[in-house]
Amino acid sequence: MKKEKFTAILSGTIALMLFYAASTKLFNYQQAQASMQKQIFSRSIADLLTWLIPSIEFIISMLLIYTRTRIVGLWASISLLAVFTGYLLLAMSRIFGYRPCSCGGIIQQLSYGEHLVFNLVFLFLSLIALYLKKKQTQEPRTLNLLPMKKLQELGPLLLAIETTITKVIRVQESSELKSEANASLI
């Protein structure tokens, strides 16, 4: 019983954070859109992500609240936080050059290092909650196979996303090199 309450508290905490992040982006939509357009994405992708990311955050927060959908919500939060953390690490390594954070509210005030710690803490909380939730179930064998099957199904999609991102980065780098070459000719 204590594990169930602790899992519910962890899931609720993660849900609140995601709900806050989504609400902040939507209440300050124009600011979020302007910030997103400063990222590495094209304007059309940035505009799409400006409403898509908060929508996903809202959906995940709802999945985390309900016991029946909590495992799916935890997997989704782990995935989203892993993507955000990966992007943050790339930004910190200056692989894209300087790119401001597109987060809103209090999170926007954090440095990259503080933001990384924040993401890692919530990623860790999600992993703990998932571990505890899986221990509570009566069918650990079924649940242990389900994520692996889902990950295997996502393999081609993740590969396609990685390939697309790599192509976008190469095109962007190529156009930046051309712009620099043209500027040096002038």
From TrEMBL:
Membrane-topology annotation of the record: Multi-pass membrane protein
GO BP of this protein: methylamine metabolic process
Single GO cellular component term: membrane
The organism of origin for this protein: Sphingobacterium zhuxiongii
Subcellular location: Membrane
UniProt KW keywords: Membrane, Transmembrane, Transmembrane helix
Main localization of the protein described in the UniProt heading: membrane
Pfam families (alphabetical): MauE
Keyword match Nucleotide-binding: no
InterPro entries associated with the record: Methylamine_util_MauE (IPR009908)
Record keyword NADP present: no
Membrane-spanning intervals of the chain: 45-66, 73-96, 116-132
Domain Methylamine utilisation protein MauE: 4-131
Protein name: Methylamine utilisation protein MauE domain-containing protein
